Amino acid sequence: MTTRSRLLVALVGVAALLAAACSSDETSSTTTEAEDASRDKVVTIGVIAPLDAGLTAYGRGIANSVQLAADEANAAGAIPGYTIEVVALNDSSDPEVGRAAAEELAADSTVVGVVGTYNSGVAAEAAPVLASAGIVMISPGNTDPALTVGDDPANPQRQNDNYFRVVATDADQGDVLAAYATGDLGVTDVAVVSEDKPVSLGLANDFEAALVAAGGAVVSSATIDPEPDDAELAAAAEAVVATGAPLAFFGGEYDVASRYRTALADAGFTGVLMGGDGIKDDAYVAAVGAGIAAGDVASSVGVPSSNLDAPDYFAAYDEAGFVDPPSDFGPYAFDAAELLIAAAADVLAGTTGGVTPEVRTEVRDLVQDAEFEGITGLVAFDEFGDTLNRVFTISTVAGDGWVPVVTRQIGT
Question: Which domain does 83 fall in, by range?
């Protein structure tokens, strides 16, 4: 049986198969010492995400969703003789903090895989550390194309064979946003401001190129510090207003985007702000105010939570009593965790030796060959570790939050 076929069996029937195995254990009159010893063995799923600082609205939903997957798997006896534990470490959306978290997980011999990070800049530091330990890393939120194919997309080279992501990248996201600006909104002139960090600049640059190709014009382009003060934001906003552009594009995330949007309003901007997945969170609307943010546009990778047909996941998430909502990235983290658990169940079935380097290698190979329908749709990867399910959704602010407008599948 191929690794792909083995994993499909694990994903589709693991609960029933392993429940039966547990049942047969209970009816057995004797057990070996090895079986007794294995009952307390631990398999750890790591999480690296912004939990205490940074983009916590995303990070906490990611960690909660991984915990939910582990709890459900343990209740079903998914890996007989083993208990799945989740170790969730904060990265504060800071690459150095994320690297330290990766080093801590890499030093834990029970870790079989990691779900994370959200931020691409953090992944650039964490992925090589985990790769050196042979630990699979599956991101539910990274969008920087360089993480998989390198800095020269015309000559792609895989960066880390342990790294995968279940969301599409900015190489597509810029095109989707530009097409919506010129087509759906009918806008030609756009003023661009971006945080001065690789993933934000990458999206802004991709958007600018796609906008021009679609017949639009970039009337101004500027960068700001990732942690700007009020004066820098005010100056950037005033420069945008001076162009007369009806659309202000922002490359960055909701914490800075909300402050920039407020500065735009203070400067007299009456147009629309557009951004990528980094701003599409209710925290943006709450910080800006629904009245000011009304009509603003953002893309999100994949299908937003509000449009997912996953009632069992959402019911279980609510029943678990998590304080923070899952955000749009929680379901992707859940699928990533279920994939890691199924792969570990396949490799560890009938063993008592725990997580070894060989186990980690086999888990990585199973993840590479995976192909199944998760709650977010197809979970499968190309030779670089990128998802084959390249989906984006455009949303706009209406009322007190974001409302999906259109979902587009790339490559179909």
Answer: 3-168+305-381
